[in-house]
Amino acid sequence: MRKDLIRSALAVVVFTVLLGLAYPLVMTGIAQVAFPGKADGSLITTGGRVTGSRLLARDVKDSPRYFHPRPSATGYSPSVTSFANRGPNQRATMMLTRQHLDAYIKAEKPYDPGLIPARVPIDAATFSASGVDPGISRANAGIQARRVAAVRHLPLARVRRLISENTAGRGLGVFGEPGVNTTTLNHALDQVAR
């Protein structure tokens, strides 16, 4: 029995060192060498100061100067990422989606008078899985471009060019749809026109 306890304790120590220390250090080292920016959180810096991460949406819903990300169930807090645990047929989901749709139309219609609910992309009114996803569809960005251009007094063509520059293609060239990163797009806008 004493031998079994010693072996068990030794196994715990060995595997703790191996899997709890050595493996994470090796993986971190490889990531730092192979993907230094991504391993550090894909940070955005302005004037030597960290202003955000390319991976996280920022809550800019109250500012018409910025492109708005998808609605968030967590208030865009990266420490409590989650999705709204509701089924697509639940009444609460339909009501919440309707509220998001109405808010979107209210914000965009003054700049796009012909905007009707049928033209609003689904990602403008529904949550992302994490609640902090900065990606929106190109159609969503195209609608918001009119508002951002008008509020910032920029030519619409310039704003559309920034959208194109901040659009990522399909994953591995085949998965999903191209998406616009609102965090990097808003950062680019701030560099062009404060």
Which features does this protein show?
single chain, 194 residues, mainly alpha, 2 domains, three-stranded antiparallel beta sheet, two-stranded antiparallel ribbon, 6 helices, 9% strand
What is the compact description of this entry?
The chain is mainly alpha-helical and 194 residues long.
Tell me about this structure.
The protein has 194 residues and is mainly α. It folds into two domains: 2-36; 41-192, no CATH class. It contains six helices and five strands. A three-stranded antiparallel β-sheet has the order 3-5-4. A hairpin with a 2-residue loop joins strand 1 and strand 2. Helix 4 (138-152) packs across helix 5. The longest helix is centred in the N-terminal third of the chain and has 33 residues, at 2-34. It is elongated, with a radius of gyration of 22 Å. The chain starts with a helix and ends with a helix. The model has no long low-confidence stretch (mean pLDDT 85).
